[in-house]
What we know:
By secondary structure, this protein is of the alpha/beta class. The protein contains 3 helices and 9 strands; from the N terminus they run αβββββαββββα.
Amino acid sequence: xSLRLSxxxxxxxxxxxxxxxxxxxxxxxxxxEVFELRALAPEQPARRTRDVEVVxxxxxxxxxxxxxxxxxxxxxxxxxxxxxxxxxxxxxAMLQTMLLRSLAETxxxxxxxxxxxxxxxxxxxxxxxxxxxxEVAEGQGAQVxxxxxxxxxxxxxxxxxxxxxxxxxAPAADTDAATIVDAFDAALRSMLADxxxxxxxxx
Length: 203
Protein backbone atom coordinates (compact mmCIF):
# COMPACT_ATOMS: atom_id res chain seq x y z
CA UNK A 1 0.00 0.00 0.00
CA SER A 2 1.58 3.31 -1.04
CA LEU A 3 1.29 6.37 1.13
CA ARG A 4 0.00 9.47 -0.67
CA LEU A 5 -0.02 12.93 0.89
CA SER A 6 -2.84 15.32 0.24
CA UNK A 7 -2.01 18.64 -1.45
CA UNK A 8 -2.82 20.47 1.81
CA UNK A 9 -0.25 18.46 3.80
CA UNK A 10 2.36 18.94 1.06
CA UNK A 11 1.83 22.70 1.17
CA UNK A 12 2.42 22.59 4.94
CA UNK A 13 5.63 20.49 4.67
CA UNK A 14 7.38 22.44 1.89
CA UNK A 15 7.67 25.77 3.77
CA UNK A 16 9.05 23.93 6.84
CA UNK A 17 11.73 22.25 4.71
CA UNK A 18 12.63 25.61 3.22
CA UNK A 19 12.94 27.21 6.66
CA UNK A 20 15.20 24.36 7.80
CA UNK A 21 17.46 24.78 4.79
CA UNK A 22 17.66 28.55 5.26
CA UNK A 23 18.44 28.08 8.96
CA UNK A 24 21.30 25.68 8.17
CA UNK A 25 22.61 28.03 5.50
CA UNK A 26 22.52 30.94 7.91
CA UNK A 27 24.46 28.97 10.55
CA UNK A 28 27.08 27.93 7.99
CA UNK A 29 27.58 31.51 6.79
CA UNK A 30 27.96 33.01 10.29
CA UNK A 31 31.45 34.59 10.32
CA UNK A 32 33.98 33.16 12.75
CA GLU A 33 35.80 35.48 15.15
CA VAL A 34 39.38 35.81 13.91
CA PHE A 35 42.48 35.94 16.14
CA GLU A 36 46.11 36.55 15.27
CA LEU A 37 49.27 36.45 17.37
CA ARG A 38 52.09 38.98 17.67
CA ALA A 39 55.68 38.71 16.52
CA LEU A 40 58.45 39.33 19.02
CA ALA A 41 59.88 42.85 19.12
CA PRO A 42 63.60 42.78 20.03
CA GLU A 43 64.72 44.53 23.20
CA GLN A 44 67.72 45.91 21.33
CA PRO A 45 68.37 45.91 17.55
CA ALA A 46 71.56 44.29 16.26
CA ARG A 47 74.63 46.55 16.27
CA ARG A 48 75.50 45.56 12.72
CA THR A 49 73.75 43.90 9.80
CA ARG A 50 75.34 40.72 8.48
CA ASP A 51 75.59 40.28 4.72
CA VAL A 52 73.52 37.09 4.98
CA GLU A 53 70.20 36.13 3.44
CA VAL A 54 67.90 33.88 5.48
CA VAL A 55 64.79 32.07 4.29
CA UNK A 56 62.18 30.90 6.80
CA UNK A 57 60.25 27.95 5.41
CA UNK A 58 56.69 27.19 6.45
CA UNK A 59 56.82 24.43 9.11
CA UNK A 60 55.38 21.06 8.14
CA UNK A 61 52.52 19.74 10.27
CA UNK A 62 49.91 17.00 10.37
CA UNK A 63 46.45 17.66 8.94
CA UNK A 64 44.99 18.18 12.42
CA UNK A 65 47.42 21.07 13.02
CA UNK A 66 47.61 22.46 9.48
CA UNK A 67 44.37 24.39 9.86
CA UNK A 68 43.15 27.82 10.90
CA UNK A 69 40.88 26.26 13.56
CA UNK A 70 41.99 26.52 17.20
CA UNK A 71 42.58 23.03 18.54
CA UNK A 72 41.69 21.96 22.06
CA UNK A 73 42.28 18.50 23.52
CA UNK A 74 39.75 17.41 26.18
CA UNK A 75 41.74 14.15 26.50
CA UNK A 76 45.21 13.05 25.28
CA UNK A 77 43.82 11.11 22.29
CA UNK A 78 40.91 13.43 21.49
CA UNK A 79 41.12 16.55 19.32
CA UNK A 80 38.38 19.16 18.91
CA UNK A 81 38.24 22.76 17.71
CA UNK A 82 36.90 25.78 19.56
CA UNK A 83 33.54 26.75 18.02
CA UNK A 84 32.99 30.12 16.40
CA UNK A 85 36.67 31.16 16.26
CA UNK A 86 39.70 30.67 14.04
CA UNK A 87 43.25 31.90 13.47
CA UNK A 88 43.88 34.50 10.78
CA UNK A 89 45.99 31.90 8.92
CA UNK A 90 46.62 28.16 9.25
CA UNK A 91 48.90 27.50 12.24
CA UNK A 92 52.07 26.62 10.23
CA ALA A 93 51.76 29.76 8.05
CA MET A 94 51.13 31.90 11.14
CA LEU A 95 54.24 30.51 12.87
CA GLN A 96 56.31 31.13 9.73
CA THR A 97 55.16 34.76 9.68
CA MET A 98 55.86 35.27 13.38
CA LEU A 99 59.37 33.82 13.20
CA LEU A 100 60.14 35.69 9.98
CA ARG A 101 59.01 39.03 11.41
CA SER A 102 60.80 38.42 14.72
CA LEU A 103 64.08 37.73 12.90
CA ALA A 104 63.62 40.69 10.57
CA GLU A 105 62.96 43.02 13.53
CA THR A 106 66.44 42.27 14.93
CA UNK A 107 68.05 43.93 11.91
CA UNK A 108 70.80 41.29 12.09
CA UNK A 109 70.49 40.04 8.50
CA UNK A 110 70.63 41.65 5.09
CA UNK A 111 67.41 39.87 4.13
CA UNK A 112 64.85 37.64 5.82
CA UNK A 113 61.99 36.25 3.74
CA UNK A 114 59.82 33.37 2.65
CA UNK A 115 61.90 32.84 -0.48
CA UNK A 116 65.37 33.86 -1.68
CA UNK A 117 65.87 37.22 -3.36
CA UNK A 118 68.24 35.65 -5.88
CA UNK A 119 68.68 32.05 -6.96
CA UNK A 120 69.13 30.86 -3.39
CA UNK A 121 69.59 32.14 0.16
CA UNK A 122 72.61 31.60 2.41
CA UNK A 123 70.64 29.78 5.12
CA UNK A 124 67.20 28.24 5.45
CA UNK A 125 65.29 27.71 8.69
CA UNK A 126 63.11 24.59 8.47
CA UNK A 127 60.59 23.51 11.08
CA UNK A 128 58.18 20.76 12.02
CA UNK A 129 55.20 21.67 14.19
CA UNK A 130 54.26 18.77 16.47
CA UNK A 131 52.11 20.49 19.11
CA UNK A 132 49.89 23.56 18.82
CA UNK A 133 46.87 23.06 21.04
CA UNK A 134 45.16 23.83 24.33
CA GLU A 135 44.95 20.86 26.69
CA VAL A 136 42.12 20.73 29.21
CA ALA A 137 43.60 20.47 32.70
CA GLU A 138 42.00 19.17 35.87
CA GLY A 139 39.16 21.41 36.93
CA GLN A 140 38.00 24.13 34.52
CA GLY A 141 41.34 25.45 33.28
CA ALA A 142 43.62 24.47 30.42
CA GLN A 143 47.19 24.81 29.30
CA VAL A 144 48.51 25.69 25.87
CA UNK A 145 51.36 23.58 24.50
CA UNK A 146 53.48 24.56 21.49
CA UNK A 147 56.33 22.39 20.25
CA UNK A 148 58.44 23.12 17.17
CA UNK A 149 61.51 21.26 15.87
CA UNK A 150 63.90 23.59 14.00
CA UNK A 151 66.80 22.92 11.63
CA UNK A 152 69.20 25.44 10.14
CA UNK A 153 70.44 24.40 6.70
CA UNK A 154 73.36 25.99 4.87
CA UNK A 155 72.11 26.27 1.31
CA UNK A 156 75.54 26.11 -0.33
CA UNK A 157 76.07 22.44 0.53
CA UNK A 158 72.64 21.51 2.02
CA UNK A 159 74.32 20.79 5.34
CA UNK A 160 72.31 20.90 8.56
CA UNK A 161 74.38 23.18 10.77
CA UNK A 162 72.13 23.13 13.86
CA UNK A 163 68.96 21.53 15.15
CA UNK A 164 66.89 21.90 18.29
CA UNK A 165 63.38 21.27 19.61
CA UNK A 166 61.63 24.18 21.29
CA UNK A 167 58.64 23.72 23.57
CA UNK A 168 56.60 26.19 25.58
CA UNK A 169 53.61 25.78 27.89
CA ALA A 170 51.34 28.54 29.21
CA PRO A 171 48.35 28.23 31.58
CA ALA A 172 44.80 29.37 30.78
CA ALA A 173 42.39 30.04 33.64
CA ASP A 174 39.42 28.73 31.63
CA THR A 175 38.49 27.48 28.17
CA ASP A 176 37.00 30.76 26.95
CA ALA A 177 38.36 31.55 23.47
CA ALA A 178 39.93 34.88 24.48
CA THR A 179 41.66 33.28 27.47
CA ILE A 180 42.98 30.43 25.33
CA VAL A 181 44.30 32.87 22.70
CA ASP A 182 46.08 34.91 25.40
CA ALA A 183 47.77 31.70 26.56
CA PHE A 184 48.82 30.88 22.98
CA ASP A 185 50.28 34.39 22.70
CA ALA A 186 52.25 33.97 25.95
CA ALA A 187 53.55 30.51 24.98
CA LEU A 188 54.65 31.59 21.51
CA ARG A 189 56.32 34.81 22.65
CA SER A 190 58.26 32.81 25.25
CA MET A 191 59.31 30.30 22.58
CA LEU A 192 60.29 33.04 20.10
CA ALA A 193 62.42 34.63 22.83
CA ASP A 194 64.43 31.37 22.86
CA UNK A 195 64.40 30.67 19.11
CA UNK A 196 65.52 34.07 17.80
CA UNK A 197 68.83 34.35 19.75
CA UNK A 198 69.52 30.66 19.04
CA UNK A 199 69.23 31.31 15.29
CA UNK A 200 71.29 34.51 15.54
CA UNK A 201 74.12 32.61 17.25
CA UNK A 202 74.20 29.91 14.57
CA UNK A 203 73.82 31.80 11.30
